[in-house]
Amino acid sequence: MKTRLVGVLVFVFFLLMGCSDDAMTGEKPPKGMIVIGDESYQTEPGSYCWKGTCADTAGSVELLKGKVPIEVKPNEEVRFVIDYEPKPNKFHLIQTSGGKQTEIAVTENRFVVPKEKGIYYYDYGVWWMDDEEEHLSHGDAFYAFVLEVE
Fold first, then answer.
1. Most buried among 31, 36, 113, 116, using CB within 10 Å?
2. pLDDT digits (tens, 9 = 90+) for 5-27
3. Domain edges within the chain
4. Which of 47, 48, 49, 66 is nearest to 57 (CA)?
5. What is the mean pLDDT of the chain?
6. Which residues contact 127 (CB under 8 A, 6 or more apart)?
């Protein structure tokens, strides 16, 4: 019985190690930035799963409480930059304003801020999905930032 248990544990260990991707380096996901015009801004790291470790944080509104919003013009373009290879290949952006959440389209790592004045919180989720196995993620990360349309 003891030998069988050890064998099962060794199998599980190698199975888990086989699922890790050597290309995913570092203990935590890479830092994310947004670029608006000629200016770059760090985002606040949020929840992630990376190299077998998962961490859960609050959403952008709670995570950024007390932070000064980045001022932007109506309809200004925001570009996401994650200086890491391989690049994530799945993206999801949620905008929160006045307690209402809206999914925002991201095209070529870019989106356009609203034309209406106000403060907008964003949760930008990215995934490093396997190219061959449809539902296999090698890691994910969420990045939070807050903008004020003036």
1. 113
2. 333 333 333 333 334 444 567 88
3. 24-149
4. 47
5. 86
6. 88, 89, 90, 91, 137, 139, 140
Side-chain-side CA neighbours of residue 129 (13 Å): 11
Residues forming a β-bridge with 48: 55, 141
Q: Is the CB of residue 150 less than 8 Å from the CB of residue 120?
A: no
pTM higher than 0.70:
yes
Structure token digits, residue 41: 């801004």
Q: Is the pLDDT of residue 148 over 90?
A: yes
C-alpha 45/C-alpha 60 separation (Å) is 10
Tokens encoding 81 = 């930059």
Structure tokens at 137: 């993620």
Q: How far apart are CA 28 and CA 50, in angstroms?
A: 6
Secondary structure (DSSP) of 127-142 = EEE-SSSTT-EEEEEE
Domain 24-149 fold = Immunoglobulin-like (2.60.40)
Beta 137-149 vs 70-72: how paired, if at all? parallel
Return the amino acid letter for 99: G
Asked whether 58 and 135 are in contact (CB, 8 A), the reply is no
